[in-house]
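BUG-469 | component: ligand-complex export | severity: low

The export step for calcium ion jobs runs without errors, but we want the raw record kept on the ticket for reference. Input record follows.
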Amino acid sequence: MKANRFAIAIMAAGRGTRLKSKRAKVLHSIGGKPLLQHVIDAALQSTPPERIFVVVGHQAEEVERAVGHAGVQFVHQTEQLGTGHAVQCLRQAVRQSSDLIVLSGDAPLIRPATIERLRDFHLAQHAAMTILTARPANPFGYGRVLRKDPTSPEVAAIVEQKSLTPEQQQVGEINSGMYAFRTETLYRHIDSLQANNAHGEYYLTDMAAILRAADERVVALETDDATEVLGANTIAEMMQLDAAMRLATARRLMAEGVTIFRPETCVIDGDVTVGPDTILEPFVQLLGSTRIGEDCRIRSYSVIQNSTLADRVLVRNSCVLDEATVEEGAQIGPFAHLRPESHIGRGAHVGNFVETKKTRLGDGSKANHLAYLGDTEIGSGCNIGAGVITCNYDGTHKHPTKIGDSVFVGSNSTLVAPVALEGNSYVAAASCITENVPSGALALGRARQAIKPGWVEKRKATMQKKKKD
Ligand code: UD1
Ligand code: CA
């Protein structure tokens, strides 16, 4: 066994009753990522890499699916009998690690550097248990850490909110719910935990007093930044964390040269990247793995998810982009909908009320008004008229439409797939195209117009005669 090999365990089996939600608490998202994923990412980023265990129980399957990650092993706590019991369930999994760091799946702001500091302090103190603590503005609801004396790192006990005496309620130092333990000592004493408290649970916090009574060293390490250990027990608290996290993301982008008007109105996920000199107007949402280049402008009310935009792209108001790719200098919207696998070429235009799905629009091509383009490949320099529809679905299967370079499709044409319009061809307005159009040809697929001279006058005369009769 390697000396001082740590394991990191993240407790995530609880239900989160206080949220009043059907979904497990650790699966609720802030900053675009589940609470638990934030903690896992912090653990994965701390160095050196340690083995990471996640204790799952309530909705275990959903939790494992949502955060499934190569670097993580799951341990099951089938009955949730408290945080102490969660750590009891880890006994086998962590037996080869000399020390164990315990984190909470519902405290998502923890930083890798703080995990490393906790580990180093724990080792330097030769402690059996090290408690990460903080002094937030409002300590209500948290367990309080009672030091042996205020200047000593040594701790006498942790007391949960419900068990605090009036005097103990004055203590401002809270338990973050994150700890380091010497594994062997922890498991030698963990079975002394009792569930004789307000919740009838095995509290991990009681290990402080138990280890003290056994003459083991229990110490506290206070964080520099109290917000880092904040937990979320209600939706309101979670939304506070969400706002704080998104504001931090907006600040980071602004520091990198992005202009964000009214950043408090924008919803930007943590993994989004935006190039300098790009402008985001109020009420823009940039979600998931979205990447935006330089000198772009994203106008208000557009929602862009898992999409890639090159430089100098203009997205006008109220567009929805989902898994789309937009090349340099293209213009989108207003009110355009780019659905998955839409690929918009350099300098191309997609105008108002145009929907694309699994469609490539070539360089410089334009679909400016009211079109549906699905399962379609369009070359460069094409003009897709107003109201053009690709009929890609026959009720059972999807079929492709192929359009070459420099094709003109007249307004209100219906292209019944599978069909191909070869390069340099024309489709007359209002055509219903069911057969391939060769290069250089004009396709007319509509009824010939009939003219009936004097028809209006004749009709009038007939009507008047009818009235008299
Ligand atoms: C816990 C601490 C409290 C501390 C606070 C910090 C205890 C008894 N109290 O209280 O001192 O101030 O965290 O946020 O530990 N969990 C399990 N299995 C269980 C129960 C809980 O895995 O049987 C998980 C939860 O999913 C959660 C974490 O452990 O991620 C903490 O549990 P929670 O019930 O939220 O503890 P708190 O009441 O917040
Ligand atoms: Ca909690």
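Assignee comment: Attached the raw record above. The chain has a mean pLDDT of 95.
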